[in-house]
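Much of what follows relies on a compact textual record of a protein's fold. An example makes this concrete, so a full record is given next.
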Amino acid sequence: MRKYRDYFQYKRWSIAIIMYASFLFMIVVPVLLITYIAARSYHLVLVETVTSRATTTLELVSSSVDTEAERIMRTLNSILKDNEVSSSLLKARTMKDTDKNISSLDQQLSNYFHQYEDNTVSAVFFYKDSGMYYYNQKMELDEKVVRESTWYKYIATNNNKIRLFGNKKNMQASENLGFDGTSITASISPGKNGRFYDDIELILFVFPDSILQQYLQSQVSKSGELLILNESGSILVSGNQSFANKGFEDDGLLEAKRNPSGHYITNINGQDVFVVYLTSNQGWKYIRIIPYDRFMKKINAVNQKSLVVGLVGIAAFLFVSYFIMKSIVRPVLAIVRQMKVMKTGHFEVQIEERGPFEVYVLGKTFNEMVLRIKELIEEIGQKERQKKDAEITALQSQINPHFLLNTLNTIKLMAIISKAKHIQQMTESLTKILSSSFNRGGMYITIREEMELLEHYFTIMKIRYGDTFDVVIQIDSRIENFYILKLLLQPIVENSIIHGIQQSEERGLIEITGELAGADFIRFQIKDNGIGFTELTGGDRKDAAQEHKNERFNGIGLSNVHDRIYLNYGPQYGMHIESKPGEGTSITLQLPVLQEPIRFRIEEGKHLA
């Protein structure tokens, strides 16, 4: 799982691909799925409709056929109960004048079969032991073969039960039965039903299957079939005789034979068919066989229409989505291209603000960002120039440094010769300070060196203003080798002497402390017990500094100190002033820890080599 997650995090897809993939899964896939479900649902509905219609047809046919079968059975039952028929059958076998008896018997039987008009083919009465009597049509029957057949033995052992058969093949008799194989046969064994039928073992009635087939043909289409199976599963009658003559593979009807009712799809004689079946009160199976491709044509037509509609819908969606994504993707790609141009350092880029609201805002914001970056670049350049100007101001060296230093050294030598100690000390201190201010050694010096310069400065100021103040310096030894800007503390000390102590009647005290304030900061605090001052705004401080500019060593005031810190170190560093009138002033500096005299990246607050 992590492997795939890492892959997708590494592989960045374009927004066009993501949107197309999203549309595919949110629109195209559901449309295809709905189309499939609709087609499938129509298929199920059509199957249910065909099944319902076929079941209705089978119920109508079964009702009609059962009624006809019951009529045949009632006719046969009536014959069994007719004493005159039974008496005539005895006389036809035992008495003389047989022709007269046969004529009388035929007349009696015709009274029962006249309702069938010419549909009755024949009736055969099998006497016990041997002998037969034919009614209406003499058939070429092999009596021995018939009596040995399975169906004959079955009927003979099941007395008083009428049995309907299909054609002669279903009767499993000889080919010499002598009647058409499409006939319907009904058989009964009277048993001991009356005195006369003691001599009759079995009666066989033969009807043409048209008696039942007429009910099937009215319900069968040219492409379908309707079958009736008897209790043993043999075909009793078929609605399409040519279809029936071809025969059926038993495997195709096994499910219909096993179950009372239902429907299924199978293959019969190499053709896919839809089979619907039910069982009547007689125990016969009524089977409707419909070629599967008959209603599949409708399903295929609907599927084709659904597919066309779905494809048209998808095409329309893709067409519309193209313009939607065009309005979104193109502006975004334009921004990406312009950003690549910006990476090369060219900021003269602009994009057309267009597209939907969010994309429009994105483009507008990009243009504003580019303008802001250009402004910041100009602002940084301006700050760099201000920084250089501040350094020049802080290190005012308008005269030739070699000439000035050589002159001071000459004065110092003359003071030594004249034994003017104060002149010697003042000249020596001034030389040290001026040497440092002339930018020898760069912009940075160690804190120890800064403290030494302050000592020389205090020497000069005490000679100039007299011994009117004391100085206490406490520097943490851990920070003595760290670097700070050169002459950073001198203007603050000068401000304390000129504006604080010299205006006070009490003896002055200046306290200077330096310590680590965490791992990344150095904190300096310069306190005096001078007269203090009211909190001034930035502009007021500059005016005050300008007023005493001629009294200063280098013309740098407190605001200039703050600017130097800000320009060199950044906004997170600076100077904090606390002052109360009559009590004194406390100035706190927060500076970065620099272990080497290196450049400092203002934007990130990091050291650069």
User: Anything to note?
Assistant: The chain has three domains: 14-306, 347-389, 442-608. Confidence is low (pLDDT under 50) at residues 169-181, 537-555, 601-605. Residues 14-306 form one domain. The first strand starts at residue 122 and ends at 127.
